Structure formats: structure tokens, C-alpha cells
Amino acid sequence: MSRFPAKPDDEDDKKDVYEACLAGRVEELLRLVGTDANMIVKDGQRPLHVVATSGREDMVAVIEALLKTGSDVNATTTTDEDTVLHLVIKHAVLRLAFQSCLMILEHNPDLDIRNKNLRTPYDVAMAQEYFELANVLDGSMTPEEAREYYKKSIGDLYGGRLIEAVMNDNETEALDCVIQGADCNRVNKHGAGAIHYLFTDLYHHPPLKLLTKMVECGADVNLRDYEGDTALNLAIKKTSLRPDNTMYNVVDQLLKWGANPTHKDLDGNDALALAENRKYLDVVKLLKRQKTTMIAESITSAIQEDDSDELEALLQDPDANLNVPNSMGLFPLHVAILRINPVSRNDMVRRILNKGADINVKAVPNPEHDEAGNTPLHMSVARDQLDTVRILLTYNPAISPTNNEGLTPYNYAEQNGNAEMMRLLQEHQRNAERRDDPNQVNQQKELQRLLKDPEANVNVPNSSGLFPLHLAIMENDPMIRETYVRRLISLGANVNAKAIPRMQGKVLLKEGNTPLHMAAIRKQVKIAKILLNSKAQRHMENSDGKKPYDYAESNKDEQMMTLLKEYKGEQATTEKKPRKPPLTSRDLEPKKLQEKGRTKSFDEVGGIDERRREQDGLDEIINDPDANVNIRNANGLYPIHQAIMRNDPIERNQLIQSLMNKGADVNSRALKSGNTPLHLAVSRGQLGTVKLLLGYRPMFSVPNLAGKTPYAIAEEGNKMEILSLLESYKRNVVDKRKSNAAIRDKANCTVS
Question: Where is composition skewed (Basic and acidic residues) in this entry (predicted)?
Fold first, then answer.
């Protein structure tokens, strides 16, 4: 309980009120004043007058609180008959006086009251040379107009002083100008502002302290001077900032404040070019990361605002990366799918995908959305965007990826009860399973041919990275499927074979599903039992880290979950590597092993070129103008290696020439053997092909992983014609090249 009465009348109480007016908290002052806000406290002054003469920084808030509790805005002191307006103008600095007067004007004071010296508040302002404030007090402005005028007047006044303070290297005065309300974006007659002079030789203090205060008070970090430079450009140009990482820290902070690194000076150099020219590698790295992020954010904004022209311009930028998430963790393709207008949505989706966006990109978890782990297909299916889903499916997306909740796109279609969407996804799944890259060979026919061949190897993948057992599980007819699976297992098919990564156009698709994974995905309980009884490992993970049980759980397949959980036939074991690599990555087997009936080579079985033609996809690569001819396939071979493996010499050499014309690397090395195309052609005794390759000036003495050069291989094989050709090449090209290099080196030497 307060010891003060509601209306204090003794000197001690008034002393407490007086001290609270000078420096106390607002709440305490109001408690002490109580209901008598107009009491005389000291020397004929009321609480309102004492606060006005105090100079305290929170004067505006305190005066406003007193006026709201009943203080008379027109009350005068008993000595000089000053109102609160008179006193504020007399005793406060211009900034506080201006702000206080603006607030008091909202309480409708009488501007014509004169004090004992017969001066109105306007007269006092003129006497103090507060001319900007006097213009507000002449009664011609509304409070709203007065506030706008204040911002401009104070900003201009202290903005000019701020520029002078920076040019005079006076950090203290510069900071005070900012605090007083300077317009930090004011420029002088030379077209430059304080933020520019910070990064000239006129200012010697570390810039971050003043720069931070200026930005807090509204400085535009992208303000350009008369030469087009921003603070970012000028910071990079100021070499004295290099020591102690000052430049890096300034650039980093400017970028965080939103500095645009693409602004160019009069010489056409942006921040990145300036840093690269000066070899500031740390700053270059910082700017490149920021530029990529900025373009990604700009692309997102263009999509959200349906700005087709801006989007097209951004997509043409060489630094545009459509596989970078925005600040919310969404990629451009996700943002496009969020468009409500189906016409613009579908147009943007096509354009983004055609520029190289990853069709299977997953949204990054973020509190601002609930799309964590969703691919574009997830999002489009969940929103029942049938036409957009059809577009996405033409780009061959993964049909059954799981998001962070373990749900597939099909699960969303099922939850929505969208029968047409479910049918579309199922149909595409079947078509994708039947499609064999690159020549669209029907996989079931391929499997039938394989089963009719008693000497075929049932553990060789096709060009899609699928083994025969995978193909069998993809058969739709359950009886035929079971027959295929049992037959392949009886022929020695590896029940734990993983589908291997493969190239689709320029994209590397990761798989890793075992037959048991595929059976679980397709809810094939009977096939799963056959596989488990044949020692299939239920604990193996695919390339996404998923086990067969994970897919059964995602499908809510109780029967499959029970089978995989309770099966006792095997324990988790370490995965064994296949005993033999695929055909395209190994040499033909020794003849003795073939004679024992183990596995004959495709050359002896017949149709080698036809099979290779179906598997290597060279025809499609040659005909695709955008194909990358320097990417290895799943077996570690480049297209040029695969071309050399063709038997027909005319076709082989034509393929090699076509690949070289498309930019193939004549020195590309196979992953598993280290063989260059020259190694491979020499080992196969292909004289014409060796001669063709030598015309492209390959490296002559590169050893493969076995330590053998092409010459050593020819020597071991007693291939005399090829040896003669290689010796001639060494003599006329290699040795001459070395001799010319030695002459150049000698000519470049300087003798001191």
C-alpha cells in the first residue's frame, strides 16, 4: 500500500514527484502523481513543465503519459508563464524538441499563448534558430503534415552534417548525427552520401560501427554514387580494408543487409568482377554464393508474382541454378506448382524443367511449410493437379519416392480418393517398368528370350540397371510372375541383386532396390515368401536407405509387414559383392571356363552386336544434340569405350568419329580398368580403329590400372602391325612434340 495520499500536499511527497519527473520511470511518476496531474511541484512548475525542462531522452513518452492522465496542455508556469511547448523548445535539443512538439500538437494546444516576454512558442523557436520547427508551429500544418515535414527537415539538416562528419573522419559527430535523425541516404552536390565516403581514404576509422548504426536508421546499402558504385563496390576497392579480414567482414555484413552484388560501376565491373580482378579469393567465394542465392530468390519471386518476362530473363542468366532452395527450403519447381492459375503454372513448370531443374528434388524441412521431403510430383498429386501431373510424368520422375512422413505420391492420390490420378500413376509405373533405355525394348520379351537360352547368364543387368529377377517381379500376371521367379532362382539368379545406378539422358538415377524391395513395393506377398525361402536378405537397404519393411509400412500392407518382421529364415548379413561384373565392364571369360559350361561369352552365343546395340544406347547419344558424351555409364565406361566394343569395324569407326565430333575425350579412362580408348582398341587388335584414334593425338604413354601402356599391350600380344603404327606415331608425333617443347623452354630461359 502506497504511503502517499492520492493528492500529496507535503514537501517530501512533492520532492519525490519532482525527482521522478527528472529521471524516474513513467510508471512510478504516474503512481506518485495519482489523480492530481496539475499540482504545483516546485518553483511554480507542474509535473509536465518539469519533464519539459529535464532533457531526458524519453521526454516524448513521459509528456504523452502525463497528458493522457489529465495534465493541462495549456497550463503555464507561475514564474514566466511558459506552457509546455515554450519549455520544450527552450530546453531540449532540436531532435527532442521537434518530436515532443509534434506529439503535443496532437493534443490541440493553444499556439497563441504568450509568456511574460510576450512570446508564443513560434517566437521561441525562431529565437532558438529552430527554423524548421517554427514552420510547424505557425499553425498552417496538420499534425500528419507536420510529422512528414519533420522527417524531411531533420533528415536533411543532420544528413548534411553526417556527410561532413564522415569526410572529416569524425566518428563521434557522425554517430550523433545518426542518432539525431539524419537522413542516411542524403547525397551531396557531388552525388555521394555518407555511406560512400565511409569507404574512401577520407575516413580512417573501422567502418562497421558507424555503418551498422546507419543501416539500423534506414541507410540503403544499395545507394549508388555518381559513378554507379555502391558501398559494396567501394569496400572491395578500398585496399586498406584487407588486413585483419576487415574487408571480408564488411562485405559479408553488407550482403546480409541485402547488398546487391550485381550493380556495376562506370567501368562495367560489379562486385564479383572487382574481387576477381584483385584476386580476393575469399571475397570471390562469398560473392558467388550470394549471387546464386539472390538469383534463386529472384526466380522464386518472379514465379510468385507471375512475372513471365522476369522469369525468362533470370532463366537465361548463366549463374542461375534451379536446384538451389529459397529461404523457405522450396525449390523453384515447388514454388511453380503452388501457382493457382493452371495455365501459368503449367507453363512455368515446363520452362523450369527445360532449363535443367531436378524433377525429383525434395523440399527442405522448414517451419513455414509442411512440404518436408515432398517432390514436385508429391505436391502436384496432393493438390489434384491432373494436367500438371501429366506434364511432370513426361520428364520421367521417380514414381514412388517417399517424403519425410514416408508417403508416396500415390498415397496422396489414395487419400484424396482421386481415382483418375491413381490410374494415371499406376499406368505410368507400369510403362516405366516396361521401358528399357535407350531403345524402348520390351523387358518382358527380353526376359523370355533369356529364359529360352539354357546357357544365358541370369546375373547380368540390362541397360536400365535391372537384373532378370527384377524384370520377373515386374510381370503383371501373377502366375507368369511366379513361374519366372522360380525358374530364375533355379538357374542361380542372385536373390539379393541390387538394381544399379544408370544414366537417363544427362541424369544419374540411383536405385539399389533388391527383388525383395520390389516385391514389397508391389504388395507381392507370395513372391516375397519365395524370395525369403531362397535366402533373400530382408534387412538390405536401397540407395535411399530404405529396407523392404519400410515400403510395406508405407503401403500399410499388414500381411507383408508381418512376413518381413517375423520371418526366421535368415539373419541380417553383410551384403556380398557379385562374383562377376556385368558383360560390358569385363573381358571375355577364359575359354577353359566356357568349355566347362559355366557361362559362354555373348560372342559365342551370337548376336553380340545386336545385344550391345540395345544396351549401350550409342545411337540415342549420337542423335541427341544435348547428350553429354563424357559421362560414364553404370559400368564405368564412357560412350567411346562402348563404341570400340562394337564388332563391325565400319560401324565402330563411324561411331567413334561421331563421338569425337561431339567432344568426346580421346583420353577418357574406364573406371575399373583405367583403360583409355587406345588401350582397348590395341588389346582387341583393331588396326583401323587404332589408326583412327591416333589421328586425334591421344596420350601415348598413359598406363592403365595394371600398369600397362597401349604399346606394352601390343608388344605382349605380338601385334606387329599395331606396334609398327605405334612406333611411327611415337617417332613422328610424341618425340617431335617433346623436342619442340624443349626448344621453347630453352628459348624462354633467361641467363643472368
Answer: 567-576, 586-612
Angle of helix 94-105 relative to helix 143-167, nearest 10 degrees, comes to 170
Of the candidates 481, 496, 495, the residue with the CA atom closest to the CA atom of residue 444: 481
Q: Which of 661, 653, 651, 654 is nearest to 629 (CA)?
A: 661
Distance CA 642, CA 621 (A): 12
- Domain-wise residue ranges, the chain: 11-140, 221-429, 441-566, 617-741
Mean pLDDT of 251-268: 90
pLDDT band of 602, cuts 50, 70, 90: very low
In this predicted model, what pLDDT tens digit does every residue of 17-71 receive, in sequence order? 999 999 999 999 999 988 889 999 999 999 999 999 998 999 999 999 999 999 9
Read off the pLDDT band of 334 (50, 70, 90).
very high
CB atoms within 10 A of CB 247: 23
d(CA 14, CA 162): 43
CATH number attached to the domain at 441-566: 1.25.40.20
The answer to whether the CB of 86 falls within 8 A of the CB of 100 is: no
pLDDT, position 590: 36
CATH number of 221-429: 1.25.40.20
- Give the H/E segment covering residue 509: strand 507-509
> Can you state the angle between helices 419-434 and 443-452, rounded to 10 degrees?
40
| Distance, CA of 536 to CA of 551 (rounded, Å) | 16
pTM, to two decimals: 0.38
